[in-house]
Amino acid sequence: MDVLPISVQKLIHALGRLPGLGPKSAARIAMFILKSSERYRADLGNTLIDLKKEIVYCTRCNNLASKDPCNICSSEKRDQSVICVVEDPLDVVAFENGSDFQGVYHVLGGVISPVNGIGPEDLTISVLTKRIENGNIAEVILSTNPNIEGEATAMYIKEELLKCNRKLSITRLARGLPTGADLEYADKTTIKRALEGRTQF
């Protein structure tokens, strides 16, 4: 016999599909929503409904936006000749909040992952190459994550960009020691990348 009403079970199941939420966390959030005011529940529901209506993907960079092109791509203050290639929109948020980067972005929509059935054609790599061919681009910064899939994706993109037959600087984010880290605890790859990415002091 089911202890909870079907509607509550469906809510817990829907919440449980969110990344990082297990069954217990999903149940706690569901109970919080149920105990909240009717106004809060209505606002939450309307926000979810309006989300799809009010959000678009920028046709230039593939980032989430409220208009097309997005505020970054359409800004005259940004350096349109420098493109930072990232995996998803949250990476753009990280760059905007944690750096002084003044170029523009290109959101891939993921990484190449044969295990998960994601190939180059499932990402926006072809859109990126068209931007390079049609625009006055001086540098492309490959900023995928430093894991196996991220590195493989960066290498694939590099090879595709080299086919564009134009003078283009292709760079990769430097990898190194995080602030406050002790050298004795760093692995060989981290130390190697820290040396390779060293700058003038």
In CATH, the architecture of the largest domain is 3-Layer(aba) Sandwich
- Helix tally equals 7
Supply the helix-strand structural class.
alpha/beta
Mind summarizing the main beta sheet?
4 strands, parallel
Count of extended strands: 6
Strand arrangement in the largest pleated sheet? 4-3-5-6
Distance between the termini: 69 Å
**Could you name the CATH class of the largest domain?**
Alpha Beta
Average of the residue pLDDT scores? 89
Number of domains: 2
If you consult CATH, what is the topology of the largest domain? Dna Topoisomerase Vi A Subunit, Chain: A, domain 2
Roughly what percent helix? 40-55%
In angstroms, what is the radius of gyration? 22 Å
Low-confidence stretches: none
Shape: globular
The helix/strand series, from N terminus to C terminus, equals: HHHEEEHEHEHEH
What fraction strand? Answer: 5-15%
Describe this structure in words.
The protein is 42% helix and 10% strand. With 201 residues, it is an alpha/beta fold. The protein has 2 domains: 6-54, Orthogonal Bundle (Helicase, Ruva Protein, domain 3), CATH 1.10.8; 78-196, 3-Layer(aba) Sandwich (Dna Topoisomerase Vi A Subunit, Chain: A, domain 2), CATH 3.40.1360.10. Helix 1 packs across helix 2. The relative contact order is 0.08.
